[in-house]
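Handout, section B. The chain below has 196 residues.
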Amino acid sequence: MHIIMRNELIHDILSELKKKKMIYLEAPCGWGKTVLLHQLEEAIGRENCTVIRSADIEMNLMTDTNKEQKENGEPKIFLVDNLGEWVVSGSIELLVNAIQNQSQECRYIFAGRIPLPAQLLPYKLTYQITIYGKNRLAYSEKELGEICADHYQGHREQIRDLYEACGGMPLFLTVAENFLEGMIADDKSTASQQML
């Protein structure tokens, strides 16, 4: 599968994070939230962020990072995937407590499929969190043009139709690849039949 660098979206998210304490990437499966978190990790620099991928990870990780941050003065960014796991496992309270005990300079980027959990609503009510939903996570026209130009020359209309059918979902690239493989196989079969 082609991985598309979301440079404009990453720039937008990191600019917003300078103004807000938290960003929440909220969308169903297949919208590229985890891939985007990996790209954000690369853009931020691994030395400036901590990735927390599961509610099973000890909260000591956040505490230790807080001490480290106080020593070097750099604001730390936490990337937390699968926020729904925290809610289901009952660990969301631990996460919120850890956030409250962190330095005010710390920033958080969450990703999840569920609406913003009630435990984080106070941050929304005080304008400290920005939510990036499906509309903001969908590929832009520019990105879609680059995808077509880089990978699917000659099939631009079919790709646009698939994109529309998927509602802008980034996972549409998997659908596109499968579709085009079938189309190319059909084209080769037709061409070989014409030669006979």
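Note. The mean pLDDT is 78. Compare this with the example in section A.
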